[in-house]
Amino acid sequence: MIGGEKMANGERACTDEYIVVKAMENGVTISGLTRGKDTKFHHSEKLDRGEVMIAQFTEITSAMKVRGRARIFTRHGVIESGE
C-alpha cells in the first residue's frame, strides 16, 4: 500500500489515495466496495447538489461507485459522471 498510518500489526490502515466528489444534482450516491475475494458494498452516502465528499481508499475500500451527475476530482484528473 502507498502511505497511510501503520497499524499495530505493521500493516497500513489507509492509502494516500483520495477522491473528491461534488454533486451537480440532488441524490448523487457514492458507494464504497470492499477488497478481497468477494467484492461487496459496505457503505453508501447520498449527496445533494453542491455538496462535496472527500473519500479515501483504505485497507477495506478498494473501489467507489458514483451514481448521478457529479464531478470526481482525483490525482489523475477530473471525471464527470451522469448525463
From TrEMBL:
<protein>
    <recommendedName>
        <fullName>Transcription attenuation protein MtrB</fullName>
    </recommendedName>
</protein>
<comment type="similarity">
    <text>Belongs to the MtrB family.</text>
</comment>
<dbReference type="InterPro" id="IPR023558">
    <property type="entry name" value="Trp_RNA-bd_attenuator_dom"/>
</dbReference>
<comment type="subunit">
    <text>Oligomer of 11 identical subunits arranged in doughnut-like structure.</text>
</comment>
<keyword id="KW-0805">Transcription regulation</keyword>
<keyword id="KW-0804">Transcription</keyword>
<dbReference type="GO" id="GO:0003723">
    <property type="term" value="F:RNA binding"/>
</dbReference>
<dbReference type="GO" id="GO:0006353">
    <property type="term" value="P:DNA-templated transcription termination"/>
</dbReference>
<keyword id="KW-0694">RNA-binding</keyword>
<dbReference type="InterPro" id="IPR000824">
    <property type="entry name" value="MtrB"/>
</dbReference>
<dbReference type="GO" id="GO:0006355">
    <property type="term" value="P:regulation of DNA-templated transcription"/>
</dbReference>
<dbReference type="InterPro" id="IPR016031">
    <property type="entry name" value="Trp_RNA-bd_attenuator-like_dom"/>
</dbReference>
<dbReference type="Pfam" id="PF02081">
    <property type="entry name" value="TrpBP"/>
</dbReference>
<feature type="domain" description="Tryptophan RNA-binding attenuator protein">
    <location>
        <begin position="16"/>
        <end position="81"/>
    </location>
</feature>
